[in-house]
Amino acid sequence: METRYANHPDEVKRFTTEELRKHFLVETLFEADQVHLTYTHVDRMIFGGVTPAKQELTIKLDKELGVNYFLERREMGIINIGGEGVVVLDGEEYDMVCYDGLYVGKGTEEVLFRSNDANNPAKFYINSTPAHHKYPTVKIDIKEIKPLEAGEPGTLNERKIHQYIHPNVCESCQLQMGLTMLSPGSVWNTMPCHTHERRMEVYLYFDMDPETRVFHFMGKPEETRHLVMENEQAAISPSWSIHTGTATNNYTFIWGMCGENITYDDMDHVKMEELK
After folding, report:
1. Whole-angstrom Cα distance, residue 78 to residue 96?
2. pLDDT tens-digit series, residues 39-64
């Protein structure tokens, strides 16, 4: 597990491209038979990819977190973006096809990941946050989610927002998680943009062709910066930063949030004339 420390916005505005990528971009999340996690000190979110192929995988961070097992004091969200697989929670198995999600409550001791086909492995993307209460584990099927429809073709941001870990779907302590699909011909997400003074956010971009690139914008509204991102890469967005992006083709992204509340629309909108 890699650790990323928090940065003050006055420091970030002086970063070179290399420094910005070092602190906020995670380039490798999914690798066969590997667990790649990042621990950010921004609200202590842990996120990353678990890719079981030929072997079953688990997450062991007891020493790093000062606990007896990973979810002793944490909750976790899982969304599979790869082939069919299985998540085992304290002996109970959950089949996970592509886009299936799972909320895992605090206190779950055994968490195992495996794939049904080593040649087409599952890719389990996880978000985990500190938790103060145990809520029930909930399996989330994307087919059962009624998406929020936003944007329009004329502004190149027509998209469907699927809320997975959200009060409308299941209870959680502070974790929120969802998946947004952009329609063909649309490339802008979260525009007009906003900040979350009370919550941080992590974006994972995927379902992209090898030549497609996302230009993910961050920074203070009056002094923006950008990251050029490839398929299956993630960006850390502190609460003071905007988080929006455009790309050379349509794509899908997973957003995960944590912080002071679980009110999805608690955001500070940025007027277009304020962006620089």
Report:
1. 10
2. 999 999 999 999 999 999 999 998 89
CB neighbourhood size of 126 (10 A)? 24
Class of domain 2-274: mainly beta
Our measurement of the distance from residue 276's CA atom to the centroid of its chain's CA atoms, rounded to an integer in Å, reads 26
Does residue 44 come out as left (phi exceeding 0), alpha (psi in the -120 to 50 range) or beta?
left
Residue 21: what residue type? Answer: R
- Domain spans in the chain, listed from the N-terminal domain onward: 2-274
Instruction: Answer yes or no: is pLDDT of 79 > 90.
Output: yes
Q: pLDDT digit string (tens) for 214-261?
A: 999 999 999 999 999 999 999 999 999 999 999 999 999 999 999 988
CB 107 within 8 A of CB 135: no
Query: SS3 for 21?
Result: helix
